[in-house]
Amino acid sequence: MLHTECIGWGGNMLELHVFGPAFGQPDPSPFCMKGIILMEMSGLPYRRVRGNLQKAPKGKLPVLRDGDKTIPDTTFIRMYLERNYGVDFDKGLSAEQRGTAWAVEKMLEDQVYWLVVQERWTNPANFDRGPRRFFDAVPAPLRPLVIAMIKRRISRNLHGHGIGRHSDAERLELGRRALGALAGILGGKPYLTGPDPSGADATVGAFMIAGLCDVFDSPIRSALQEHANLVAYAGRMRSRYFKEEAA
Fold first, then answer.
1. Rounded to 5 degrees, what are φ and ψ at 16?
2. Using CA atoms, how far apart are residues 71 and 142, in angstroms rounded to an integer?
3. CB 91 within 8 A of CB 82
4. Phi then psi for 131, rounded to 5 degrees?
5. What is the three-class DSSP state of 9?
6. Which of 47, 57, 122, 235 is 20 to 30 A off residue 152, Cα-Cα?
7. How does the average pLDDT of the chain come out, rounded?
């Protein structure tokens, strides 16, 4: 359930625009879940509202609104909170820890994310289980045309990124390598950089929760489940930051 109360901070209202719960997840987008975790970590009062992609400045969610300011993209949302509200998501971390955390975030966002997109949007059975529902509000006569247009756009994006040029086996190999690296870095720690969550955990937690979604036929999920520490970590993050959804 999305927050509906209007909560202000410093004279402005902070609003995080997201998709809302779907597929048994707090949000179908790992980036929206990342945004939610960042807001929860910040301790700032805010509310979650359903976003509108057509009104989003970069055509994607989440978007943070602070009074008359609009901040798209979770990385820039984080930077905005750090600069304007004095939030230190990496308090106490060494330069080495901060560097490792940033590298892990980019590995997940710039590679693993596209592996998940490939699985959900280009596999016909997975598309029918999930993304097809995004088009339910489109008038029935137009729906097939809109779906075809969006799927072509996503296929072009996947090809342009490079992930779409690989075979299924090659993509799985990349996913296994990334998840193995993450499992090695996490080790036996409760969170990525130690006993307490840091900024990178917003990304890692969101992606591990998304990766374990059981709605889809997912070799990436199977690869993730091979690492007990990642599965336990995902459960820990979900319980900590999505209390309502986990209840």
1. -105, 115
2. 32
3. no
4. -55, -30
5. strand
6. 57
7. 93
- Give, rounded to a whole angstrom, the gap between the first and last alpha carbons of the chain: 12
Domain 8-85 fold: Glutaredoxin (3.40.30)
Q: Do 205 and 37 meet the contact criterion of CB atoms below 8 Å apart? A: yes
User: Which residue(s) pair with 65 in the sheet?
Assistant: 15, 70
The DSSP bridge partners found for residue 8 are 13
Domain ranges of the chain: 8-85, 95-242
Residue type, 22: A
- Comparing CA positions, the residue from 18, 11, 31, 4 lying closest to residue 84 is 11
Q: How many CA atoms lie within 13 A of 149 on its CB side?
A: 7
- The pLDDT value recorded for residue 7 is 33
Rounded to two decimals, what is the model's pTM? 0.92
Confidence bin at 213 (pLDDT 50/70/90):
very high
Q: How confident is the model at residue 8 (pLDDT cuts 50, 70, 90)?
A: very low
Q: Judging by DSSP bridges, how do beta strands 12-18 and 47-50 pair with one another?
A: parallel
| Per-residue model confidence (pLDDT) at position 12 | 65
Structure token pair of residue 72: 């798209």
- DSSP type of residue 195: S
Q: Class assignment of domain 95-242? A: mainly alpha
Residue 67 and residue 23 in contact, taking contact as beta carbons nearer than 8 Å: no
54-58's contacts with Cβ under 8 Å and 24+ in sequence apart are: 56/17
